[in-house]
Amino acid sequence: RHLQAVARLPEVKVIEVVDPSPAALELGRERLSEVSERSPSTTVRWLSSLQEATAGGELCIDATLARGRCQRVREVAEGLGYSSFLLEKVVSQSVREMEDLAEFFRGKAINAWVNCKGRASRFHLRARKHIDPGEPVIFNVVGGNHGLATNGIHAVDLFTFYDGTRSIESA
């Protein structure tokens, strides 16, 4: 879906999709063909390894599985010179790995965002304007087992958006 969104942007001139799996690349081609408002000035390159990718790109979107993501992001930053990343949640499989990646980003002045888009919706932006920052935020979320981890991450992100807190501690 990231590919579909980026392919609509007229300011994007080149997209490189890297995946060692031919089936995944084919799925990407299929998903791209579903985009009717695609920018005609955008070229898409389908690559099977990072070694084929062009150095110095402006943004790397890593939407693969979390396992190995932190190492892969380091490889892209160091080997290809990328300095901006959009990462899919869950970013990593361990807190230590996440902390190490955050330290790496700070040391290299790398920008990184995690795909938690709920706070950007018009509804949440409008709703937050009506919350008194001096009052407690009562925030309820109901869900099931399907998507529990990722939905939980989105819920926590929205809570911090509304509450303004920079950290949450479990009791």
Description:
This protein has about 170 residues and is α/β, with parallel strands linked by helices. About 40% of the residues lie in helices and about 10% in strands. It has six helices and five strands, in the order αβαββαβαβαα. The protein has helices spanning about 1-5, 20-35, 70-80, 95-110, 120-130, 150-165; strands at about 15-20, 45, 60, 85, 110-115. The protein has a three-stranded parallel β-sheet with strand order 3-4-5, covered by helices on one side. The chain has a two-stranded parallel sheet with strand order 1-2. The two termini are about 35 Å apart. The mean pLDDT is about 90.
Q: SSE layout and pairings?
A:
Blueprint: H1 2-6, E1 14-18, H2 22-33, E2 43-47, E3 60-62, H3 69-80, E4 84-87, H4 95-108, E5 111-114, H5 122-129, H6 148-163
Q: What structural class do helix, strand and pairing data support?
A: alpha/beta
Unreliable stretches: none
Average pLDDT across residues? 90
H/E series: HEHEEHEHEHH
Q: What form results from the Cα inertia axes?
A: globular
Number of strands: 5
End-to-end CA span? 37 Å
SS element count, helices: 6
What's the quick description here?
Helix content is 39%, strand content 12%. It is built from 6 helices and 5 strands.
Keywords:
single chain, 5 strands, 171 residues, alpha/beta, two-stranded parallel sheet
